[in-house]
Amino acid sequence: MKKDTQAAIAGGFIARKRRQNAGSRSSTEKGYLMRAIFGIFPLLVVPVALYNLLAVMAGGPATTTNELGQIVASDMAPLQAVLNETFFTLPMISGVRWVLTQGDAILLLSIVFLFLEILKSTSTGTSTIINHAISMMLFILCLIEFLLAPNFATSTFFILMSMTLLDVLAGVVVTIVSARRDFGVDHG
Predict the structure, then answer these.
(1) Could you read off the pLDDT of 95-148 as tens digits, one per residue?
(2) Per-residue b/e over 4-19, b at no fewer than 16 CB within 10 Å?
(3) pTM summary value
(4) What is the rounded distance in angstroms from the CA atom of residue 79 to the CA atom of residue 55?
(5) Tens of pLDDT along 60-104?
(6) Contact (Cβ atoms closer than 8 angstroms) between residue 121 and residue 171
(7) What span, in angstroms and rounded, lies between the C-alpha atoms of 106 and 104?
(8) Separation of alpha carbons 93 and 186, rounded Å
(9) Which UniProt keywords apply (predicted)?
(10) Which of 45, 114, 140, 143 is deepest in the core (most CB within 10 A)?
């Protein structure tokens, strides 16, 4: 009877450990999946999507009518007024107020994401290569929007588009340099 009790306790302990290990494996697999998605997903998609959302929701038409009812084309992007709106103000010690516009806030967010993208590009895995390919497609999409859509012909979007290009170029260069270091390629 004593041996049966010990065997049952040991069996229960082993079954509990197996369940715990299975649970930790699934959480590890979930963590690996999230890291893979994070590695593939270019972070600059977030500010580009935010700008696109602003352009669709807040941007007006590129043409207006004057007092005579004639259609007049605007020489400025319809979204420019929204980008120039105040996002945040802070009184400074000098007595003036520092104003951060909505366009500036998008660019600030983009700079943070560009920094994180450059940090991500130091790995040499398959997900990094896919990330560079998606980043290139993002740059091409931004270039097409900049050239063809009136709401995207702003300095804010031009700088954002330039950041996507820098993401592609810096990512490829950093990945090549990292790969050379990892594989021990030497010219001398």
Answers:
(1) 999 999 999 999 999 999 999 988 888 777 778 888 889 999 999 999 999 999
(2) eeeeeeeeeeeeeeee
(3) 0.72
(4) 6
(5) 665 566 676 666 566 678 888 889 999 999 999 999 999 999 999
(6) yes
(7) 5
(8) 54
(9) Membrane, Transmembrane, Transmembrane helix
(10) 114
What is the phi-psi region of residue 88: left when phi exceeds 0, alpha when psi lies from -120 to 50, beta otherwise? beta
Q: What is the 3-state secondary structure (H, E, C) of 108-148?
A: HHHHHHHHHHHHHCCCCCHHHHHHHHHHHHHHHHHHHHHHH
Q: Can you give the C-alpha Rg of the chain in angstroms? A: 26
Cβ count near 137 (within 10 Å) = 13
Amino acid at the residue 61: P
Exposed, middle or buried, 118 (CB in 10 Å: 0-12/13-18/19+)? middle
Residue spans of the domains in the chain: they are: 1-40, 43-183
Contact between residue 134 and residue 59 where contact means Cβ atoms under 8 Å apart: no
Q: Are strands 97-101 and 86-91 parallel, antiparallel or unpaired?
A: antiparallel
**pLDDT given at position 100:** 96
Q: How would you label 69-88 residue by residue, b for 16+ Cβ within 10 Å and e otherwise?
A: eeeeeeeebbbbebbeeeee
3-class SS at 44?
coil
